[in-house]
Amino acid sequence: MSTSQADDNLIPQFARRGEATRASRHVIPQQESLPGTAKQIIDDETMLDGNSRLNLATFVSTWMDDDAKQVYEASFDKNMIDKDEYPQTAAIEDNCWRMIANLWNAPDASQSIGTSTIGSSEACMLGGLAFKRRWQQARRAAGKDTAKPNLVMSSAVQVCWEKFCNYFDVEPRFVPITEEHKTLDGYDLEKYIDENTIGVVAIMGVTYTGMYEPVAAIAKALDDIQAKTGFDVPIHVDGASGGMIAPFLQPDLVWDFRLERVHSISTSGHKYGLVFPGLGWVVWRESQWLPEDLIFQVSYLGGEMPTLALNFSRPGAQVLLQYYMFLRLGFEGYRAVQQESQDVAKFLSAGIAKLDAFELWNDGSDIPVFAWRLKEGHTSNWNLYHLQDRLRMKGWLVPAYPMPDDLTDLTVQRIVVRNGLSMDLAEELLEGIETETAYLDALESPMPVEAQRPAFHH
Ligand SMILES: Cc1ncc(COP(=O)(O)O)c(C=O)c1O
């Protein structure tokens, strides 16, 4: 160590270069700094971030146990794509998606195919790409035009589907949600389907509200359409959240590979798969639904290993964490964790329903997520954005936002209950909501509404 570094070490922490001056923002600093100084600057700046455990806007895991953290620490240097260097991690990835294929009732998981991804967005895009490629191949074989593929889905889809359509030149056909049809449910579906429809997206756990779309009813509507028109339209289930809830909490609900029309399902390992971000999974019911020309070969143990991904390098640690969670919790453990989250969601939704000001949109009995609105005519002095801001002052992030088409005039507020929001914390939150609602109700004049904005984007 040079003399000047030794001297730097002696200077009190907050009087050191970098701490005593403003840290460099947009240009890499000219000089080195001590590791302790660099770390302290980052610790201090991120201290101003919200507390992730109090963020009830996100679906993403914010808590794992200490053993999981050790698994993570021991493996965060592993690159998932390096299958030759890390054959065991590659084998564990395979174990995981096969476990998931079985969980989703694949008739014969040895005939299924799947992969891990960075999250549901990438998994959904791979599902969409398989639809598009299969449709193109069939059309070309029949000598038909392939210029105008379209994908049919609810107006309440997550933004990843809009991205898919934008990036991969597919026309999005949105079926608007309404008060009568709160989700895509098969109603009017024939108006949106034609020979250029590559598939329909059904969501298990709509991002805006947490509701399940009735996949079996959508499949039945598509059966009827096929009987009338001959169009054989497959379903991709976006189970970003519900894919890891329904098997445990609603095992009798038929939404998965029990339905032949469901070709593929995706989920986020980092949501109710209970793993830190970023991890997703996509599985095809049978490998025939994943066109082979979308698969690339990488070298693996001197041989070839099929890979399917939009990116190349990415961390392998999350895949190991998923395997850890499957081994650690087993089916019964997952069921218990998800049930606990649902109990907390129902406790909170029941408490909010009791307040005069609000009306529930749903109660958290699908995934442990629910939304509510202000009762019509309750007040013109405040709205849900004001309640969002009051709760933010207490550290809670409980987002308010407008619903999608055809309900854009409706503002709702939503709570996502995740593993880690204990009943004890939920009681605190409910008290906060009661206190802040009473405060707002006691106002004698209207709150300003300028510059109000949603705290969450879909
Ligand atoms: C229904 C749905 N699909 C897809 C996504 C995107 O998931 P990810 O953040 O894992 O990419 C989300 C995220 O909230 C979602 O709720």
Automatic annotation (TrEMBL):
The keyword S-adenosyl-L-methionine does not apply. Its EC number is 4.1.1.15. Keywords: Decarboxylase, Lyase, Pyridoxal phosphate. Pfam families: Pyridoxal_deC. SUPFAM superfamilies: PLP-dependent transferases (SSF53383). GO terms for cellular component: cytosol. It is an enzyme of class 4 (lyase). GO terms for biological process: L-glutamate catabolic process. One of its GO terms (molecular function) is glutamate decarboxylase activity. The keyword Acetylation does not apply. It catalyses: L-glutamate + H(+) = 4-aminobutanoate + CO2. Its cofactor is pyridoxal 5'-phosphate. The modification N6-(pyridoxal phosphate)lysine is found at residue 271. It comes from the Bacteria. Belongs to the group II decarboxylase family. This is Glutamate decarboxylase. It comes from Mycetocola zhujimingii.
